[in-house]
């Protein structure tokens, strides 16, 4: 199974998602702080994948500091650096939180840290397979599906959240056509989703983000299926910029809008979506493509990379526990 | 006044919009068939600018064939080649139609052909200035404005349609902030709109197309203002892909949606928007950026470059004659 994260010879290897699909390049990490930089620079991205990566980074931290006198200080420092690597995806904090007790109790065993990381990784894959089964039941024969960003194997431990449901529905021969928004500015759709589906011999059709409405009007899409970076207590969904736009289009055209995310993405401590810190990134992500200049670099931009979809626009939230139709505070609370 | 089209020494010069803003390069044309290729390749684009360009191309045709025996055949051939250069923008057909009578009556006078082209060009600028005045009345002090694609000086004879209204409102100090959708795949927003506004010392902020919904939800936009490539008898609007998306967002969020287009864009012979031929362009516009590969070239794409906005989503259609609120068949018919 395709996974963007692997542990080998006490090193963490990440598939560099900045250069996919033109290059398939693995980078190797020995220090937690370098992993934090990799998360920040989007070598690895996708909420569940970031959480898993942070777990392995904590294991690296115990190796790096094994001969250090004040391990507690150093390892806690690494945890805090990792916590600050990106602000929006909840799985990062959820994963790191599981190491707090180790640090508090002076447990710095590589075995324990690594086991936990592997468990986070394996559980994520298991959850994705479960969500695939639960979510695909909503898909009817010959449905057209639109997805945004990459909520696939590359964004998770493997199989994917939104793409997990799409994979499962594809395996049951239900899908007429899969459309992938290219997802500006980082092009997770045309670079990552198209690549990982092609890797599994699943065809998809890449569109610009602004084509979705036209496609839906042409009745080519019955379900929009996306992942999530964070879900708040009231079931608001924080996900890649453009998700809210799609949710509005789904409501306006009366087609289905499905969010697929493990419970590790749910942040019950935050009341509502607008309480979440939405990351703003650099202007050059819009004004350049990679090293290639697109336009003048002095133009002003507004590069917010996530948006908030209010719960009332979500038809079904698929978790590894169950599918929640018309999710709200009470249903999330009972989960 | 900035204009992307100029006639000099019996040659037509076009500002190459494919390489703006990184290069300001003028290309010179002596043959109508080469101008048709330039239109097809988007050296010049924007419905009114294409119409003006076609007029000058007809003048070139009389020069090229002045010593040719069967001028009528050759010049009609050029007209037909120009007609096929792009299928959607109506101004192309509207402008060329004005030369049919000359050809039918064996009039091949450069003077007449050129005068007509200059009149089309000058009238377009005049109309834009009129529409600027008419449209800007709808803008309130401190409104935020979002525009899509480039419906500015570069898309017209000068001043612009949508950007004409925005320029006029800016000159009256009404606008709080102008947002420009980058407009994938061709990036008319981040390349052309940002450049021509900067040229006139007007600030704007570039966003990815999928950020519009979030911006509107944040109440930063009160009016969405766009141009049009064709308007049908029932007031449906055919414009750059993504326009329909914005119209849905405007309706959903109860903000204004304004279309600015001269009557030369109105095609009373077509009943409704879905009757218009929507141009599909090459996959590499999505999979590449210019010469730069973004992703694997074998991925499937759906690169429709226009969409249809039904009249019922248009709050006001601004023409050089008047502003039509809630446009429909009867109001267009009476225009």
Structure characterization notes:
2 copies of one chain form a homodimer. With 335 residues, the first copy, chain A, is α/β, with parallel strands linked by helices. Chain A is 39% helix and 19% strand. The first copy, chain A, has helices at residues 32-40, 47-64, 71-83, 90-104, 110-136, 162-171, 188-199, 212-217, 243-253, 284-287, 329-334, and strands at residues 5-8, 11-15, 26-29, 143-147, 175-181, 205-207, 223-226, 230-232, 237-240, 256-260, 266-267, 288-289, 292-293, 300-301, 306-309, 316-318, 323-325. In chain A, the strands form 4 sheets. Chain A has a 7-stranded mixed beta sheet, sandwiched between helices. In chain A, strands 11-8-9-15 form a 4-stranded mixed beta sheet, covered by helices on one side. A 3-stranded antiparallel beta sheet of chain A has the order 1-2-3, with helices on one face. The interface between A and B is large, with 54 and 53 residues. Strand 6 (205-207) of chain A pairs parallel with strand 14 (300-301) of chain B, so a sheet runs across the interface.
Beta-strand residue fraction of chain A: 15-25%
Spatial strand order of the main sheet of chain A: 6-5-4-7-10-16-17
> Could you spell the SSE succession of chain A in H and E letters?
EEEHHHHHEHEHEHEEEHEEHEEEEEEH
- Structural class call of chain A reads alpha/beta
Mean pLDDT of chain A: 97
Uncertain runs of chain A with pLDDT below 50, 5 residues or more?
none
Please give the alpha-carbon distance between the first and last residues of chain A. Answer: 29 Å
Give the chain pair forming the largest contact, with residue counts: A-B, 54 and 53 residues
What is the subunit organization of this protein? Answer: homodimer
Q: How many distinct helices of chain A?
A: 11
Rg over CA atoms of chain A: 19 Å
Shape annotation of chain A: globular
The helix fraction of chain A, in percent, is 25-40%
Q: How would a crystallographer describe the biggest sheet of chain A?
A: 7 strands, mixed
How many strands of chain A? 17
């Amino acid at each position: 199974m395709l996974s963007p994260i692997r542990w080998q010879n006490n090193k963490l290897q990440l598939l560099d998602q900045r250069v996919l699909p033109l290059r398939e390049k693995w980078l190797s990490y020995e220090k937690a702080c370098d992993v934090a930089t990799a998360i920040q620079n989007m070598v690895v991205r996708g909420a569940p994948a970031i959480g898993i990566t942070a777990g392995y980074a904590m294991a690296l931290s115990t190796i790096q500091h094994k001969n250090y006198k004040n391990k507690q200080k150093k390892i806690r420092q690494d945890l805090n650096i990792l916590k600050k690597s990106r602000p929006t995806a909840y799985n990062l904090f959820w994963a790191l939180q599981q190491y707090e007790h180790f640090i508090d109790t002076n447990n710095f065993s590589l075995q324990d840290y690594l086991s936990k990381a592997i468990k986070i990784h394996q559980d994520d894959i298991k959850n994705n397979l479960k969500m695939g089964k639960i979510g695909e039941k909503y898909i009817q024969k010959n449905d057209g599906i639109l997805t945004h960003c990459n909520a696939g194997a590359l964004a998770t431990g493997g199989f994917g959240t939104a793409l997990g449901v799409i994979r499962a529905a594809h395996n049951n021969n239900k899908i007429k056509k899969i459309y992938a928004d290219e997802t500006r500015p980082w092009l997770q759709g045309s670079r990552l989703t198209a690549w990982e589906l092609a890797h599994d011999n699943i065809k998809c059709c890449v569109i610009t983000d602004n084509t979705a409405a036209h496609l839906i009007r042409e009745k080519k899409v019955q379900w929009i299926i996306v992942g999530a970076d964070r879900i708040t207590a009231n079931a608001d969904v924080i996900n890649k910029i453009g998700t809210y736009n799609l949710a509005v289009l789904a409501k306006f055209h009366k087609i289905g809008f499905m969010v697929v995310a493990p419970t590790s993405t749910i942040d019950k401590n935050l009341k509502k979506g607008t309480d979440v810190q939405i990351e703003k990134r650099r202007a050059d992500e819009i004004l350049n493509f990679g090293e290639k200049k697109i336009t003048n670099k002095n133009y002003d931009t507004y590069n917010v990379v996530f948006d908030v979809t209010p719960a009332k626009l979500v038809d079904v939230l698929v978790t590894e526990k169950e599918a929640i139709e018309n999710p709200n505070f009470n249903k999330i609370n009972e989960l």
